[in-house]
TrEMBL record:
InterPro entries on file: Carb_sulfotrans_8-10 (IPR018011), Sulfotransferase (IPR005331)
Protein name: Carbohydrate sulfotransferase
One term of GO molecular function: sulfotransferase activity
GO cellular component: Golgi membrane
Organism: Cyclopterus lumpus (Lumpsucker)
Gene Ontology biological-process entries: carbohydrate biosynthetic process; proteoglycan biosynthetic process
Bilayer topology annotation: Single-pass type II membrane protein
Signal peptide bounds: none
Length: 370
């Protein structure tokens, strides 16, 4: 199958036509040189990826996850990379291009090796986290706590529904219904967009994303999460909970949150803010044209916007609008939280997110993990 316009633009370092991109509709093999990782992305050398026998079992036995349906989809967003300009020099453009090619190739290899037996039928459930921007023909899969809010702001601006992203409030982003989910279209509309639109997802170091979600939802006032998740978590995992804690669900500890995540008989279901990215976006079923990293969010986002033909003045915002007084969740902060749990629990949480670590090529967060 011939390469798509996005593939051609990436290979030659050209900008895409402003009318939009025509992305891939089915996996294609690609023999490309594998580049160094993106700065700050904590990617490992793809040629050094090794999967043990135990890890192969984890990949093949990941259970299906059931969602709570009334969750909000709020997330903080950030960029820890140096500021990216509207245009990139040719060397940097080429490097970002090669990084994208390598990420997509790795995804195809992992899916072919470990997920080849999954059904190839795409249902409305599989696309429930994809948001549609028709003007520039973009499908964005939301991964909360990985720049989701600011990317939705940018899509709203691209659609011509707001003049600038900075003016869009957090509640407007997630509750204003400005963006349509792909699963609200009929099957013909879903498949047409999957075949002709550019499919995009951004991911984040899995344990850092999980800690960010815990801090956001349980260390700050949040009536929905404290009631829906906090009360059953405290009830099941706290030895002698106070009547006040059982009534409000306030004060869930990180260790209790970890116990909940690892429990195969959870007292309450999973939530999009801490579910695995591969479960949210189904990259072995949907052939994503662009896989971005939160750790280099600003530069990679603006690289993508230039590829789509978006006006040069449109850039991804980098502000943090939820709990702005809190420090952003970093590697050091993540390590401090995981010092509160046992070595076994830390290993099991890594196992829980192992598929994300492998698919998106993140290094082990702790040296003693196996």
């Amino acid at each position: 199958m011939p390469g798509t316009k996005l593939d051609c633009c990436l290979r030659r370092g050209e900008t895409a036509p402003s009318s939009g991109l025509v992305p891939a509709s089915s996996p294609r093999s690609r023999e490309q040189s594998r580049p160094a990782s993106s700065p700050g992305s904590r990617e490992q050398d793809i040629t050094l990826v090794h999967v043990s026998k135990r890890q192969r079992k984890l990949l093949k036995t990941s259970p299906p996850i059931h969602h709570n349906t009334n969750s909000d989809s709020s997330s903080s967003s950030t960029s820890s990379s140096p500021s990216a300009s509207g245009s990139l020099d040719p060397d940097r453009w080429k490097k970002l291009t090669n990084i994208q090619i390598a990420r997509r190739q790795l995804m195809k290899e992992i899916c072919a090796k470990y997920k080849s037996s999954i059904s190839k039928t795409i249902t409305a459930h599989h696309v429930s986290n994809l948001f549609v921007e028709d003007k520039y023909k973009l499908l964005y899969c939301q991964v909360p706590k990985a720049g989701c809010s600011n990317w939705k702001r940018t899509l709203i601006v691209l659609a011509g529904l707001a003049s600038n992203a900075q003016s869009i409030q957090h509640d407007t982003v997630h509750e204003g219904h400005y963006l349509r989910e792909l699963n609200t279209f009929d099957r013909k509309g879903i498949m047409h967009r999957l075949e002709t639109y550019t499919k995009v997802m951004f991911v984040r170091e899995p344990l850092e994303r999980m800690v960010s979600a815990y801090r956001d939802k349980f260390e700050n006032p949040n009536s929905y999460y404290h009631s829906m998740f906090g009360k059953p978590i405290i009830s099941k995992y706290r030895a002698s909970p106070s009547p006040e804690a059982l009534k409000t669900g306030n004060g869930v500890t990180f260790k209790e949150f970890v116990q909940y995540l690892l429990d195969v008989h959870r007292p309450v279901g999973m939530d999009v803010h801490w579910e695995q990215a591969n479960q949210l976006c189904n990259p072995c079923l949907i052939d994503y044209d662009f896989i971005g990293k939160f750790e280099n969010m600003e530069e990679e986002s603006n690289f993508l916007l230039r590829l789509t033909g978006a006006p040069p003045n449109i850039k991804l915002p980098s502000f943090k609008d939820r709990n702005p007084a809190d420090k952003r969740t970093s590697t050091n902060i993540t390590q401090k939280y995981f010092s509160q749990v046992s070595t076994l629990e830390r290993q099991r949480i890594y196992d829980f997110y192992y598929t994300d670590y492998l698919m998106f090529n993140y290094t082990k967060p702790f040296k003693d993990l196996y």
